[in-house]
Amino acid sequence: MRNGKKPKGIPLDSSIITVPKPLGSDVKPKKLVLPLHNRWGMLKLLVRPGKDVSRGQLLAEDERGVAPPVYSPCDGKVLGVRAWSNFAGEEVPAIILQCSGSTVQEHAQKDTGAWKKTDPHTLVKKVQKAGIRETDAYVWPLAWRLAQPGLPPTEIPNGPDISRPIEYLIVNALDRQPGVTIRESALSGRETEIAEAISLLEHISGTRNTILAVRKGQPISDSLERELRQRGIKVRMCPPVYPIALEPILVQYITGREIALPHGDARAVGVTVVDILTALRVYRSIRDNSPAFSSPLQLTIHGSENDYQTWIPEGILVSELLEQLQFNYSNAAKLILGGPLLGFAQHTFDVPITAEVDNIIIQAKPDVFIYENNSCINCGYCVKVCPMGLMPNELSRLCEYENFEAAERQFLFHCIECGLCAYICPARRPMVQLMRFGKREIGKLREASQEQ
Amino acid sequence: MKRPQLHVSASPHLHSGITVNCIMRDFILALLPAVFAGWFYFGWRALLVLIISIAAAMATELLWDKLVGRPVGLRNGSAIFTGLVLGLLLSNQVPWWIPVVGALVAIVAGKELFGGLGNHPFNSSLVGWAFLAISYKDILENYPTPEPKFLLEAGEFLVDPAIYALKDGGVDAIIDVPWKDFVLGNVPGEIGTICVIAILLGGAYLLYRRVLTWHIPISFIATVWVFGYVTSIVDPDTYASGTFHVLGGWTLFAAFFLAPEFGTAPVTFGGKIAYGIGCGLLTMIIRIWGTYNEGVPFAILLMNSVTPLLDKIRPRVVGRVKEIA
Predict the structure, then answer these.
(1) Same domain, B41 and B125
(2) Among the four residues A88, A268, A358, A371, which has the most C-beta atoms within 10 Å?
């Protein structure tokens, strides 16, 4: 295993790790909103509005067989399909579900270990059917990244290229961003479950090299260490620097392999990265033989000393969650889904929490950072900090003056939107916004030229 | 309950808190030891020159912004910095209108005509200084002997700034000057450039605060020293040593406060190093073989003009891999 060099970035301050407090009683949603669109495509609705559905019923699936399907997390009634704002602030069609029953499993199942005797191909099909969406923006859904060569989860023409065997399986237990601690707390207290989950992924992928990536200095309990050692899972300490946990940078740091961008397919270099939280959800789904309904969430509210950490049903609205906490709206000024540096600011509290969201932040007015439309002072701080070796100062100006071809030649599409340039920019320029603007405009230009 | 209006923006939703104001404040703080040294050796008149220069720079920027209908940019403190640096590059004997004219040229021709902070191709203070140096050579080159306020005796080995003495009198003219005088700044010269200790304090502060990276200052100073060292080994009777070239004249002041000015210096690793080396080489070439006494200002102005070229020395882009099957 070759070491990549230490990545650039800002320190993940371990002092801000808070003691999580549970949400209290189980979250019992009245209404769920399940988006029919995710980063891998559009899903086709399978139930008619007005119909009653039962817990675990298939509601929508991808006709191409790539994107993970959507299941009903509770007994209830389909109210209809409406355009709804998703976690990224895009208006997408979504199923509105009225819940009548609880979303939680009545009794946790005991692990029978049946999966150990099941062949990987069957398991990969199960993973595909489990409906797992993930926090990080991977190129392909989990099942495709885990599938062994020649054994795709679904038989489709022109699917993802999975001809290369998985040489490294990296289970990513690093928290992505400063202030997010959910993965670190997930590691403590459920040693066997974690170890089993990693073993399951190893079994499915057929790899020999499984690496658990944790933060340097993170306390790991003796029992977990023992469990991992018995199973031959290596633990790799990574420097506590943002953005080390992002896929291209993590793969380069741990394996020394470089993912070809802008496509960013790690599988093409023989590496698969799986989030530790996703691993847990996969394990529970296979163990209980049910789709993955709930996902873990950290809720950070301004002025409150501790963060909430809990598992919530997918599709619950932020407003409904806050209602259960008897949240006082008066000081809230910004709602961010997905963390302080990568997250999306929302225009409404009625936004569904899907598994893409691991962290919700509510900022008060004084905490809100306001960008300014200043000109670049060419200090070069962003060049110093960019983990992808880009020149954000130049890119941002090229996008600002709509010189998109030049921006593309300067590798605009290699930008992973980690946000470090905007974080550091003394002129408070909205760097990420300019990059996204450039990418989107180039996309439009391409579409237009294809139509001609 | 009534829900509040939400603020929406692109990510990230955090900021380091370092703004242009902070950077300019750090630059100005870093110059304070040099200001103190100027007062210590040249008295209150030195402070008067600085104050006139700063006031003129601020007034010019204010008027210009009003004139062209741009939001007043005084807030970010860059005018104070430009004025202060220009003042520190002058002798304390100049008449009051010299810093005014200099600041006017520095702000208007050096900065605002190009669109303000960050967009000017040449170091704004040096543009002002170069205008004065070419137009009013005799008025500018009137350097008094320093009169330390306390503790020190006036250094009397030199009557002209060290670099001038070297040009006129060769190595013999400066060989006897004790290093202590250079380090403490007890030699004739401009208000801000003579005291090595004060400048190094400011430079160390800038590096400590990470306002500057080491690349430009260190490569600049190292090049000057190596060049001087080599030439003095080749012919010690004609060429002064590398240490003299670093400590005497503007080298240190320029390495920390002139050469790395934002907008006029490259931003990439390779670019910064090449820029520093270029500044050092041109400085020494002008000092040794050129017609000007002090090579630093024109070396920097020349290197400023190739900055866009040096910025082509880019970092390696991650993920730029040939198509993997």
Answers:
(1) yes
(2) A358
| Domains annotated on chain A, with CATH | 31-102+293-367 (no CATH), 112-288 (3.40.50), 381-451 (no CATH)
| Cβ atoms B295, B278 nearer than 8 A | no
The two structure tokens encoding residue A427: 């002129």
Q: What is the DSSP string of A272-320?
A: EEEEHHHHHHHHHHHHHTS---EEEEEEEETT-SS-EEEEEETTEEHHH
Task: Flag whether B284 is in a domain.
Answer: yes
Task: Pick B118's closest partner by Cβ from A375, A394, A436.
Answer: A375
| Buried-exposed string B232-270: b where 16+ CB fall within 10 A, e elsewhere | beeeeeebbbbebbbbbbbbbbbbbbbbbbbbbbbbbbe
* Global ipTM: 0.90
Q: Looking at the complex, does the CB of residue A371 fall below 8 Å from at least one CB of chain B?
A: yes
Domain count within chain B = 2
Q: Which position has the token pair 């080995």?
A: B157
Q: Which of B110, B140, B170 is where one domain is finished?
A: B140
Per-residue pLDDT tens digits for B247-299? 988 999 999 999 999 989 999 999 999 999 999 999 999 999 998 889 999 99
Nearest to B317 among A10, A377, A411 (CB): A411
Chain A CB contacts of B11 under 8 Å are 341-345, 417, 419, 422, 432
